[in-house]
Design a protein that fits this description.
Layout: E1 4-11, H1 17-31, E2 37-45, E3 48-58, H2 61-69, H3 71-83, E4 89-93
């Protein structure tokens, strides 16, 4: 079974960048404790401090929906109504190779 993976691009209005980063960092600590959450990472580009990139991996869509339904997640979503400079760009993905330990012909480590 493949994990449910999400990549999101979240662009924040300049005046809310510090507040949004703090809230999302706090969200990470709660989310990483959820059953079914395997990866929940925040990333930024050194060239664009207003955009936060989020990479998530959950056991399945049900685990992702559980995460979305949590009060702490909904609190951040409510704040997005003020914070967002543009709509969130969300891509649902599936890993091309689920287990990196699978040998690939012609490739050695």
């Amino acid at each position: 079974m493949y994990r449910y993976c999400v990549f999101a691009s979240i662009t924040i209005k300049q005046q809310y960048v510090v507040e949004a980063r703090y809230a999302l960092t706090t969200l990470v600590s709660f989310t990483q404790r959820e059953e079914g959450c395997h990866v929940f990472n925040l990333l930024i580009s050194p060239d664009n401090k207003q955009t936060i990139y989020l990479y998530e991996e959950f056991t399945d869509e049900q685990a992702y929906n559980y995460h979305i339904s949590r009060e702490y997640t909904q609190d951040v979503f409510k704040k997005y109504e003020t914070w967002l400079a543009e709509p969130i760009q969300k891509i649902v993905m599936q890993k091309l190779i689920e287990d990196i330990n699978v040998p690939v012909e012609g490739f050695t480590r």
